[in-house]
Design brief:
It is a single chain. The protein has about 280 residues and is α+β, with helices and mostly antiparallel strands. The protein is about 35% helix and about 25% strand. It contains 10 helices and 10 strands. Strands 1, 2, 3, 4, 5, 6, 7, 8, 9 and 10 form a 10-stranded mixed β-sheet that branches. A hairpin with a 3-residue loop joins strand 5 and strand 6.
Length: about 280
């Protein structure tokens, strides 16, 4: 059988405000997600023995703890299906980069296996399952640019501009848990509206903490700020700047040092995963 091959696109947090910390330790936040035309790729083949086998190992990540495997097994447990799958991954998105690699892989697994196994759970149920795996997973399941609130689970679809982005990838893996537990992290930003975000933008409350703790990120921001207003995405460590067209982004990318990996990608308000799935339905 021909494998089902699906993209797992990256995302950017165009802003991230932290409003406070909840009694359960999670943070109330407001953020604006947009997808990129760039990401990982997963392929799925059905198995009749009910096993979930991820053929692609990631350094330092145990097979059974990988979000891809956890997503597949969660879907099995939620539905009682006896289907299994062999899964292969082409990994392009960095671990700890703040561009959603693991969360996007998990969402692609949920949607891909829902299709492959003929479960037809629907977006709402799959998004609820995704939230069990991580706060960012539902936005990838929904597949539309969104203003997110709460811990990131309350999503309002939005349609910001879709520029080209230059994304620089400092060679560090930033710990989300470390940044959100940092005593110096701002946790009292004033709530804002979707309209004001789309009209005026916003900042990333995590950026000062990450810059202080990760010199590689600070240096990347300094370099990119020479050409464009640069920001951190999520808790990092990737940083990005927006450009009106690919040529401008490529021009700046060519001027960055070889020691700083980077890529250029188009912003998109509809996930490439959902566009691909629509062609299969």
């Amino acid at each position: 059988m021909t494998p089902l091959v699906l993209p797992a696109p990256a995302k950017l947090n165009l802003m991230l405000h932290i409003l406070g910390r909840r009694p359960d330790g999670y943070h109330e936040l407001q953020t604006l997600f947009q997808f990129l035309e760039y990401g990982d790729e997963l392929s799925f083949e059905p198995r009749g023995d009910g096993q979930i086998r991820l053929e692609t190992a990631l350094p330092g990540v145990d097979h059974d703890r990988n979000l891809i495997v956890r997503a597949a097994r969660l879907l099995q447990a939620a539905t009682g299906t006896t289907h299994g799958a062999t899964i292969r991954l082409i990994k392009r998105l960095p671990l700890g980069g703040g561009i959603g690699g693991g969360s996007s892989d998990a969402a692609t697994t949920l949607l891909g296996l829902d299709h492959l196994w003929g479960l037809d759970l629907g977006e709402d149920r799959l998004a609820a399952l995704g939230l069990e795996l991580g706060a960012d997973v539902p936005v990838f399941v929904r597949g539309r640019a969104a203003f997110a609130e709460g811990v990131g689970e309350r999503l309002t679809p939005v349609s910001p501009q879709e520029p080209w982005y230059l994304v620089a990838v400092p060679q560090v893996a930033v710990s989300t848990a470390e940044i959100f537990s940092a005593p110096e992290l701002t946790r009292d930003s004033t709530p804002i509206t979707v309209r004001s975000v789309l009209e005026q933008g916003g900042r990333n409350d995590c950026q000062p903490v990450v810059e202080q703790r990760y010199p590689e990120v600070r240096n990347a921001l300094i370099l990119l700020n020479k050409f464009v207003s640069a920001r951190l995405t999520g808790t990092g460590g990737c940083v990005f700047g927006a450009f009106p067209d690919k040529a401008e982004a490529d021009k700046v990318a060519a001027q960055l040092p070889d020691s700083l990996p980077r890529f250029v990608a188009k912003g998109s308000n509809v996930s490439s995963l959902h566009r691909t799935l629509q062609t299969l339905s």
